[in-house]
Amino acid sequence: MLSTSMGPSGNGMANGGAETRASAPVLSSKTQSLTTQDPRKPALDADTTKTVPQKLVGHKNFVRENLKSDRFVVKGFHHLEFYCGDALNVSHRFAWAMGMRETVLSNLTTGNHLYSSRVLQSGDITFVFTAPYSKQLCAKELSAVEQGQDGLPAVPHPHFNPENARSFFDKHGVAVAAVGLLVGDAATAYEESTKHGGIGMLKPVRLVDATTGGVMDISEVVLYGDVVLRYVSTPELPSDDESMDDEQPPREGLKPFQGPFLPNYRPVEAPICTLGLTNIDHVVGNVPQLLPAVQYIANMTGFHEFAEFVAEDVGTVDSGLNSMVMADNSEKVLMPVNEPTFGTKRQSQIQTYLEHNEGPGVQHIALACDDIFHTLRQMRARSSMGGFEFMPRASDAYYKCLPEKFGEDLTPEQLQQCKELGILVDKDNQGLLLQIFTKPVGDRPTIFIEIIQRVGCMEVDKDGKVAQRGGCGGFGKGNFSELFKSIEEFEKTFVMVYEFVVMPFGLCNASGTFQHAMNRIFHDHLDKFVVVYLDDILIFSKSVEEHAQHVETVLSLLRQHKYKVNLEKCEFDRTKILYLGHEVSAEGIRPEDAKVASIRDWPRPQTVTEVRSFLGMCGYYRNFVKNYSTVASPLTDLTRLDTPLDLSDECEGAFKRLKHALVNHEVLMVPDPQKPFIVTTDASQYGIGAVLAQQDGKKLRPIEYTSKKMPSKKMAKSTYERELYALYKALVHWRHFLLGRFFYPRTDHQTLKWIKTQPALFDAVKRWIEVIDQYDLKLEYLKGEYNKVADALSVCQRDKPRTQAPLGLLKSLPIPDGPGLSFSMDFMDTLVTSKSGKRHIFVIIDGFTKYARLIPMPETARTEYVIKLFKDNWVRDFGLPKTIISDRDVRFTSKLWKKTAEQMGSQLRMTSGNHPEANGQAKQMNRVVQHLLRHYIKPSQDDWDEQLPRIANLYNNAIHSSTDVSPNQLHLGWKPRSALDFLLPENRPAATPGTLEYGVQYEKLLHEAVEHMKKAQQAMIASETQHRRQSTFQFFMISMFDMMVAVLDNLQNHPFSPKFNYSKESSRNLSSSVGS
């Protein structure tokens, strides 16, 4: 069984005498084969339930089939009744805007004390505007009826409920309350509708006109929301061939009512001022769920599906809809029903309607005309004088395509008029459709008017009359995209209508509001298997099966609250992932490689702003630096207000130590809430340090480091106060980890155990103790020699090495004699593995021409592979070099590399470990490559090797500062063509290679390059010498060896790194080296 909640909460027409209404119709899945019958006879048995497809197939796959299945005779649209607050003014505006004539009315002047109602007509179109009178006046009239006084003969609709009408207007504004259908018999239509699930609102009532004696029957059932479907019929004697059945009651002696609406309305004399509107083409409704609503309509009326559309059909990207068009046997009564779609960039306009209308209702009314160009000119002329405004015109690109699509159907003049008037054009396999939409005609963006003209589809009916088939030209499927764009543009100007469906930038409290929403949605799962920071959601699990359940839970919650995710930015089923600048895996947490590389290659700050930028980047990863606050202190002092920038030796040292600490970071453990935490603290007169850790097997692994300079006012305090201050600051810093959990604080000072026994304490100490007492802890004493980490954090500021200008003045390398004779090479670590498995860049640069080759290679490339890359990418093209300059990478110091160089007749020149600037060309090239890559790689950075050819081309074709010519031109002897040559052609033609002129020009180019390189070297030496100092060496050969052995013994007792460990073998090697 299927159920729908389309039943309304009252529609405003009388429900006196109506059947008791169920909360929602229950739809059965029973079906029965249908046969073609007389269109005026019910085609379905009483127990048959008509079904519609339970899944939309879209316009392309939809097959229309008219089974003539109406349950009662339907002749066409009769009227549309609007409820409003002021019938006079609303009707006058509609009359002026659309050229409709007021024909009849009912109000106080006719004795109607319940409501005012005015009727407008144009062709076969009838609009009724009804507004209830005041509560006091209505209550007086109704009270008189209840007391047995005369009825209300002057009220055309005897069961009108003013309170329901008033409630309808408050809820929906000016909106359609009733869709009137002219049927063969209102009683039969009501009976068939309610028998097949229709919700009865007004049982059949016979109305008699007091003036003419004409008779009209009406009845009402729910359509959708608060809108009713009103059946209207006039008794007439049918001819023999039109007889419905033998059971129909005789109608002899009944005079049919001939008025435009209901009996007992007073005619109004008004001039005819038509603009050419002829009939109601279709009435469109919006509902939250399409299929249950369509099923309900099909069941009670027998209407068949005429067309359907899905979001993909209408070609919209930002928003969309699903739609089904229901039609009677004649296909002259067309009733499209829409539902919103979700998951698009913007909220569907259908959803906007449902929110402003507070539920289902009629969205727009399509009115047909005979000459849309004439009608539209007249309506547009009245727009600025109180008429209706129209939606923004479609784009020029849309109208540019019209001649190609519709040139055979419309003349060039007509196509030009379409563009000028903003008319949209569409076509199906039967005819042509011209259409345009007004802006909302009321205060809310809920009710629109569509003006259309259908061309073609003419046929001769059984009476010999030429008529047009219903729905000719379709419903503007090809125009949906432009229509939605127009509505979107309109909504942007309608402040109360426009609604953000994503969090906008720049609004105060936007981020806090969004974070609060995320916390509310995932409240029950936060820190259990999901972590959310704004729009970054991290889901973590212990197994694949558990992870699938967690992902499903998160996505279901997002869908439930109407949030959507960008699939392109999502990653699933990963054992390692980047999150908020960190790499998270089962091993632990580490900084993102790309960020570490950025810090490693950060240039020397030249301004206070650059110092702040560097500290900002490093500060984000301060949890990984054991002594961050004390190491960064000299640089932090430079950022104080009114402090001049003076990069002293102390600041230079801090800059280098920070970079080294982050490049050689430690992998932090992901905290496990099931394990106890261990907090290790220490304090000295210079600073405090603390480590938060947990046991990982037999090893104690850090979770986070923190350190803080000791405030000057606390430096003179006693030892136990400083130790207590260190513990206090650590507990406050890690409050979110420790409060409410049992943990072990460790310190190397036992005074903390008996501090509470002191007879007198300072107020600050008392406050610290009060905070510490909030925690569940067991204090452990740790000897200083086992508390090395916290000790280092607290005392490293005291033991900070003094830095001086580097010793020795720089000397430039000799300029090579020509191209291809000497070059530098280096390996650049990008810290990012590409999709093809590459991580390093093999950089080769010619020492004379500065021409470079950039070759991607794996991180684990062996010497044999490097030699092959070198031969394939350099030797093959430029021959064997005389000199190769490189650092002391293990591959360059290997025997295989040296043997290869010997075979090529090349001399190897390697820099010392302390002076990498000797290979400055390659090191400078590394910085250039990294800078250029930033502009071209994707955010994921895994395509950097695909961009290397472009980077090399950019570099080699740019003018080099040291030669004043591009590397390509100097290396090749001629200038390769580029895109700029088309914009800035050279006036002088290039010489032909091999000619005397070419040789002279190339020799001149080489000579000029040498002169420029000499000047560049002199400028570089002068600049660098300012930061270095000259040295005078004095050799004392007798004591040199003993001094070095003593130094190595000291290093052995206080090791810094395994590669500096002292050994007997190294001592012997040193001895032989010094002795020689």
Automatic annotation (TrEMBL):
Biased composition (Acidic residues): 238-247
Cofactor(s) named in the record: Fe cation
Domain named Integrase catalytic: residues: 815-975
InterPro entries the UniProt entry points to: 4OHPhenylPyrv_dOase, 4OHPhenylPyrv_dOase_C, 4OHPhenylPyrv_dOase_N, DNA/RNA_pol_sf, Glyas_Bleomycin-R_OHBP_Dase, Integrase_cat-core, Retrovirus_Pol_polyprotein, Rev_trsase/Diguanyl_cyclase
GO BP terms, alphabetized: aromatic amino acid metabolic process; DNA integration
Domain VOC: 279-439
Residue ranges with Basic and acidic residues bias: 38-48
Biased composition (Polar residues): 26-37
Stretches for region Disordered: 1-50, 235-260
Pfam families: RT_RNaseH_2 (PF17919), rve (PF00665), RVT_1 (PF00078)
Keywords for this protein: Iron, Metal-binding, Multifunctional enzyme, Repeat
Record-level Gene Ontology MF annotations: 4-hydroxyphenylpyruvate dioxygenase activity; metal ion binding; nucleic acid binding
Presence of keyword Metal-binding: yes
Ranges in a coiled coil: none
Family statement drawn from the similarity comment of this UniProt entry: Belongs to the 4HPPD family.
Protein name: 4-hydroxyphenylpyruvate dioxygenase
